């Protein structure tokens, strides 16, 4: 097909980063962070930048000592169960949404632990009442993802925090799409604490991959329960999990540039609308998500693979069948708004030409 495939199957950013980030990366050896071993927890300027952003955008106050960096968030998601099990060998279960990013389950399997999907409702939100007492007593951590990937739902984080506290389970909230919340302001699990400082039993995980188009730099952080963050900082430094100093400097610059993030939000919003219209030409009514960069589209007749094949054949568009995110995703496709507008318009033009 002339123009090639329009790949909307993987949520990888296509847009340029902030000029402030490029300037930070190009600054060279102006400080020792380039040639010295970086701190595993992260430099104080980088951690202050992350804590400041959480305060400004999410309305939560996090002490700098209750926040540490990670090399993007995927490595933390994959590694967290093993480190938590080392801390508490009496628990062996990882709870995660039945419709979810696959690494939540894989982190449990890599650690030799028991992955247990939590059922979701028709709105794709967690049904925590379905978790039995025996399973809760074995749980090391409950993963929650809001806005969710792939369905774009917003969880009731207050209810999640209350359930986790009542069950004595650490909740880890993957909030990498928080800046791309469409239904109301961005929010964090850390805004729903009841212990001193509001952080006990809660962990929030953040990334600059989507907000700032920095997936390739691998800058993320985790924040919350001071005891858990302190433990992870100690363990991770022995494993050599260190964000390079120049990346820490660039990440701090990105967090200080809200204007670029706001412009990126609008670019994603516009693409989601165009993709919604494109799917409409295939008689697919895909609602705009409450958050995130994906359309979660019901396939006609419940056949997600057939819809994926049609989109590829008639529009040159590559999407992800919903089963890739768990059995709860059967009958849907995920469409990522990650191509430039001209590529989406090319796909729409192909469809219009075929209809003529």
Number of helices: 11
Globular, elongated, flat, extended or rod-shaped: what is the shape?
globular
Low-confidence stretches: none
Query: Class of the largest domain, according to the CATH hierarchy?
Result: Alpha Beta
Name the strands of the widest sheet in spatial order: 2-8-7-6-5-3-4
User: What is the terminal separation in angstroms?
Assistant: 17 Å
Q: How would you name the CATH homologous superfamily of the largest domain?
A: Type I PLP-dependent aspartate aminotransferase-like (Major domain)
Key traits:
alpha/beta; Aspartate Aminotransferase, domain 2; 11 helices; 3-stranded antiparallel β-sheet; 12 strands; 2 domains; globular; Aspartate Aminotransferase, domain 1; 356 residues; 7-stranded mixed β-sheet
Descriptive report:
- The chain has 2 domains: 6-16 and 259-355, Aspartate Aminotransferase, domain 1 (Alpha-Beta Complex); 19-256, 3-Layer(aba) Sandwich (Aspartate Aminotransferase, domain 2), CATH 3.40.640.10.
- 38% of the residues lie in helices and 15% in strands.
- It has 11 helices and 12 strands.
- The protein has a 7-stranded mixed β-sheet, with helices on both faces. A 3-stranded antiparallel β-sheet has the order 9-12-11, covered by helices on one side. Strands 1-10 form a two-stranded parallel ribbon.
- α6 links the parallel β5 (139-145) and β6.
- α2 packs parallel to α8 and α3 packs parallel to α4.
- The mean pLDDT is 94.
